[in-house]
Amino acid sequence: MLAESAPLPTFREVAAARTRIAELDIEIEDLKRSIQARLTERDKCCDVLAAVAQYKHPILSLPAEITSEIFVRFLPSDLEFIPPIGPKSPSFLLRICRQWRGAALATPQLWSSIDLQLHGDRKSARNHQFKLFESWLKRSGNFPLSIRLWDMRRGSTSIATSPKFKDAILHHASRLQHVDIYLPYDDLRSFTAPMPLLCTASVDPSDHPKPATTPSATATALFPLAPMLKQVALDLGYNPFATTLPWSQLTTLTASVNISEAIYILRQSTALETCALTIYPLVTVPDHRRVPPLPIRTLSLLWASGNADESAVQLVNARTLPVLSTLVVSEFLLGSNPIAAISRLRPQGYPRTVTILHAGVSLDVYKEAFPDVELIVHPE
After folding, report:
1. Which regions form coiled coils (predicted)?
2. Which residues of 257-279 are buried (b: 16+ CB within 10 A; e: fewer)?
3. Residue 109 has what DSSP assignment?
């Protein structure tokens, strides 16, 4: 309303106002039609999203058993122990969708293997790693277990020394099938529970017991109740005089030992078929005469030092190795006359395949001496 003191609009201003009102009405109608068109387009987009929300991909309609089988085949076949994180881990499946997460957690076979790298000095890091390990074991249900505990800080105080990790493993002793353990000797002494499924074991002590150079009556028996244990790998820190194994039932052995320890092990390992030994120097060469005939078919004898040594030469003979078919040996261990050492495998005959490592004798000389043997020679 115009103030009483304000002058009245002129006829021209009134006409202009009426014209502008008409223009604004037209613009408002155009805007209404534009808004309506956009509302209609929005409704169509909502319909598309609703259709997608209601759509179920055929793979999500598979029976739970088929989904579980696909997930199990997702695990890498070339790894004996499965990492807890990364694209090769079953935990990767937990991040795809809610349905896949539920299916993965309901498939215990996915969680029956773990390769856990222990690292970090902080208590929070140790607790996190243990919670991961504990949840993994829980998810595995009743499936046989394959466990590797790997300390990234070898030589320092290992997280693996924590009783929690050892106790968690031993709590599932009846399900252990494959183990690779890095533990102190005091913890190894606890591995005496029945392990009816255990078939392979790798033992790497994180510390060394008091030096023992002869068998001890107080030696700890490791895996004494594991009747299926056939394959064992022993690291350099393992002392067979301080901790014994069920040697007589082993068929495959890999070990880093001195010749005295090797002889002690071989005397008891009467079922061995495949044996790979890395021999370390020993000042006093033990007596080999009491080594019984062994059923070893594949033997690898490697030398850990650069100096020649004859400590193992007496092992390579027909009486000790009557059925040997494949021999891999460092020439250092064959003494000053490697041709004569290999000849001791008669009268049963030579192995079908012989590989000589760190060889000083040429391939031609070996071929001339053993024309009926497949020879592989690697020079020094």
Report:
1. 14-41
2. bbbbbbbbbbebbeebbbbbbbb
3. G
Q: Return d(Cα 117, Cα 119) in angstroms, integer.
A: 6
**Would you state the torsion angle of the CA atoms of residues 253, 256, 260, 263, taken in this order, to the nearest 10 degrees?**
10
Q: What is the pTM of this model?
A: 0.74
Greater confidence, 192 or 188? 192
What does the alpha-carbon distance between residue 105 and residue 139 come to, in Å, rounded to a whole number? 7
Q: How far is CA 250 from CA 189, 253, 277, in A?
A: 20, 7, 14
| Whole-number pLDDT of residue 194 | 94
Identity of the amino acid at 177: Q
Name the strand (E) or helix (H) holding 125. Answer: helix 123-139
d(CA 19, CA 101): 67
**Domain layout of the chain by residue ranges:** 76-210+220-245, 248-380
Q: Is it the case that residue 95 has pLDDT exceeding 80?
A: yes
Reported as a single tens digit per residue, the pLDDT across 261-306 is: 888 888 888 888 998 888 877 655 555 556 778 888 888 887 665 4
Q: Where are the beta strands (DSSP E) in the chain?
A: 113-118, 145-151, 176-181, 200-203, 220-221, 231-234, 243-244, 252-258, 274-280, 298-303, 326-330, 353-359, 374-379
What does the pLDDT look like over 313-355, one tens digit per residue?
667 777 788 888 888 888 877 878 888 888 877 666 668 888 8
For the chain, the residue count is 380
- The 3 state secondary structure assigned to 10-77 is CHHHHHHHHHHHHHHHHHHHHHHHHHHHHHHHHHHHHHHHHHHHHCCCHHHHCCHHHHHHHHHHHCCC
CA 254 to chain centre: 17
Report the C-alpha gap between 76 and 266 in whole angstroms: 35
Taking the C-alpha atoms of residue 355 and residue 235, their distance in angstroms, rounded to an integer, is 23
User: Where do we find the tokens 């008409």?
Assistant: 22
User: In this structure, what are the phi and psi dihedrals at residue 357, rounded to the nearest 5 degrees?
Assistant: -105, 155
Give the residue-averaged pLDDT of 131-141: 91
Q: DSSP per residue over 327-347, as a string?
A: EEEEGGGGTT-HHHHHHTTTT
Q: What region does 152 belong to: left with phi over 0, alpha with psi -120 to 50, or beta?
A: alpha
Distances (CA, A) of 283 to 209, 309, 338: 21, 10, 21
